[in-house]
Design brief:
single chain, alpha+beta, 9-stranded antiparallel beta sheet, 18 helices, 18 strands, about 50% helix
Length: about 625
Amino acid sequence: MKKIILKKLLFRNYLKTSLISIFFIGTLLICAYFWTNKNIINSSIDFLLKDANENTTKLINKEISTLRIKLHEVTSLLKILKAEHEFFFENINEINYIQKQKININYAGDGVYYKQKNNGGSSVILLSKDKLTNKMKEKIFKTENFDRSFRTIIDENPSILAVYFTSYDNMNRYYPFIKDVYKVFSSDTNLKDYNFYNQATLKENPMKSAVWTKPYFDPVKKEWIISCIVPIYNNNFLEGVTGIDVSLDSFTQNFFDFNLPYETKSMIIDKSGTILAMSKDLNNIFDIKKSKNPDKNKQINTTILRPNEFNIISNEKFKNIFTKNNYLKNSNSRIKIKNKEYMLFINKIRINDWKVVSLLPVENLLSSVKNLEKKHLKIGYFLITFIIIFYLIFLIFLYQKSKQFVESINVSLKDMVRFTQKLVTNKPVNKVPFSGIYEIDKLAKNFNNLSLELTQRTQKLVQTEALKLVNEKLANTDALTGIYNRRFLDDFAKEFNCKPTTLSVILFDIDDFKQINDNFGHDTGDKVIKKLINIIDTSVRQSDCIIRLGGDEFLLLLKDSKEKDAYIVVEKILNKIEENNKKENNNIVFNVSYGISEYKNNHRTINELIIEADETMYKNKKLRK
């Protein structure tokens, strides 16, 4: 038969129907499409982020400008009041009374004096344990001059709640008028303990300028406010504090009513990190509850500030979101809250070190781009599907063309596979026939030689291993019961000593076994032993080992078991022995003693466990006698 070289045969048939070039071009086109699409999407995202950054910052700064004007207006008004009041106290002796005859100062008891009737001016309260002096009355009457300015400020500025003056001697003048003002403050209230007074002292305000307080709960209006306060000095003596109260909600309403793009939410924070006001839904984003107002019917004797829950520096919930660095810097960054990404904008208001923190949901910003990306991906998947279908059709064509070539060598290869399967199952293997192809005939010859050699070696190995297993089983097995003997225990002890694990042992001893042999014969004694082994074997797991130590002593190894588990096994065995002894016409009646031991760190060998179990069994026997 003429020989054919396999290399030439493969060259002549496969190169004509190769798919390499077509596959390469198709793959290149798909990769180019997705790469181009990815670049377009990334460029669109970068553009949107940059545009959102610039436009949102502009819009926020525009609203900040409006808010800054409001703050500046309040500060300017307070500077005017400062000049007016300091002039007043410097020239108090020359100041005339206003409506003295219409002012009635009543005594509410317990050191509380107050202005009873509303004469169109401020309410007045004086908290003093001393008797009301003429000098104090004169001061109350003359400070009625403040009311004209107070009234004008309130009338012209809807966002301002109140204007007040608190003196060093615990007098408070508050506009608009509060009916029954003595009910607002208790007699032991010290007005200088409130934060609006403390922040005006020389220690807290060495520049003697107008400052804004932290948010606090107003004891008069019963709502959260901030105050712009200024100290009133008379020749370096602090006469008191003049302040303007502003409602947080009304003051910032216009700022938060403005709809920023992409559902951007904002909050205003003071220099200490306390949240002054925030957009709706931000409390849900940060998981903070709206602060509860104190009881409106209860008198408030001290300053109630916002709880720490509303401070982004001290509140643990904010620490993973706003670090100290990105809170202080003025640049923009990206943060994640509840696995949702936001663009973070921090803009300064400047007048009082307040900042506006804004969060723009990146998901809302990029929604249009993500939709476009999904459409492009659908087109890409359609192209991939089309190419796959094309390749399937082409593969069918290629299969038909290559079938003839494969059949020319497939017969010999099939024979070789079939003979290999027989070889694995140790079935008789015939010689692989020659096909006429040079390389395959050479492979068949080598395979036949290998098969013969492997068959001979396998038979010899099987015989050797079988003999070894038989001898090993006989050496480790008790001839009478078929269970393990002491030699097996020695092998187990070596492995146990190397790898300590959870293990409990039970040592059994047949009671009065010698008398059974002497009275009934050794055959009966053997039956007793077999019966005991049968009971133990049906009471334990397959993984547990029963070992005959010699004579009537048996050891039960309970792997992965504690002492309490061993007692459960013993109870099961003893119950079955008792059931056996109660059977009628039963000549195999016996009892056993037992000892239990559990492996602990102080045990070094298996023999120590057995000795401990033996001592326990001896004690049990002694107790039973």
